[in-house]
Amino acid sequence: MRRQCIKVPKKKGEPVRRILLELEILDNSVKIGADQAFLYLPLTREPAPDELQSIPEGIELIEFDFEPQKKKPVPEDLLGFNPAYEVIGDIALLEDSELDNKKASRIADALLRTLPNIKTVLKPLTPVIGEFRVKEFEVVAGETRTETVHREYSCRYKVDLARAYFTPRLSTERSRILSWVKEGDTVVDMFAGVGPYSILIAKSKKPLKVLAIDKNPEAVRYLRENIILNSAKNIKAIEGDAREEAKKFAGTADHVIMNLPHNAFEFLDSAVLLTKPGGIIHYYGITPEDNLFESSIELIRTAAEKTGRKIEILEKRVVRSYAPHQYNICIEARVI
Ligand code: SAM
Questions:
Q1: Which atom of ligand 1 is nearest to the CA of 242?
Q2: Which residue CA neighbors atom 11 of ligand 1 most closely?
Q3: Strands, E, within the chain: which ranges?
Q4: pLDDT, tens digit, for every residue of 44-75?
Q5: Atom 16 of ligand 1 has which residue's CA nearest to it?
Q6: Domains delineated in the chain
């Protein structure tokens, strides 16, 4: 493939390549050419005279025959369509639980062949179910396991997806909650799972302490492992019912995280009890589009007023769409 290019002595090649990249005129569709003494840097267009000024002397503008760049295949190249999946650690999780075995195997094969980091492909057999919010899975291809280590914001979370809840889809949400926390704060994560809110906060904000509670013994086993894996300090993993644990830590929390969106409203009395005067509840809910926030705010207000306290709503927002006309929302309420 004949292209206009810059012929540059090999020693000066790298700085010139960088300049062309910055100018956005390096042609990435072909491989950079080379012989013993020179590099041939392909161009998408002729550089303007003023652009050439930034390029060191000793270069030539010539034409050269280049080899096309080999493009790494993506799953769509093998399948003819773009499959829906999410990546958790080295596991690809197919999103469509209705896929028949033949199609699931075809997709899994394409994922394993094109994504070198993926070692296992899972298909969910159920939605998130039960008190511990876990799914059941089938291993479609690859290594027969449901355990992996997922990296997020320089933290690592080991999790067995069939035993404890975890989703990478809340990563932005976790960093948003992090931005509310200040050094020296006490944080109670009432439904901590394997620790993605608690560990991120403990690692990033020098809190006085983080109490990470979960009722699922398997989640707490991974939470404890993840605390060690991330060398997180000032964090305590507690296996127990958030309602019972709240009684032991009444009035201590600057922040209470309530990431149990379907049932958080049932625990509002405990969240208020935990919150010190001026502390903030981060309340999650699943609500219909015609009543995104109002009913939830009323529930928080009622819980606070039961013990003579008031609330101030600091922020309310949609986290993500959950189902048709249903949204996962979050409300930040200060309890005075
Ligand atoms: N915050 C974690 C995350 O983002 O990955 C986990 C969220 S998951 C939606 C909710 C968690 O609440 C589950 O791990 C479940 O075991 C836990 N849970 C449910 N009921 C509980 C209770 N009464 N007390 C403490 N934890 C509970």
A1: 24
A2: 191
A3: 2-9, 33-34, 38-42, 60-65, 85-88, 91-94, 120-124, 137-142, 147-152, 155-160, 186-189, 209-214, 235-239, 253-258, 275-288, 311-323, 326-335
A4: 998 888 888 888 888 999 999 999 888 888 99
A5: 132
A6: 2-65 (3.30.70.2580), 75-145 (3.30.300.110), 168-335 (3.40.50.150)
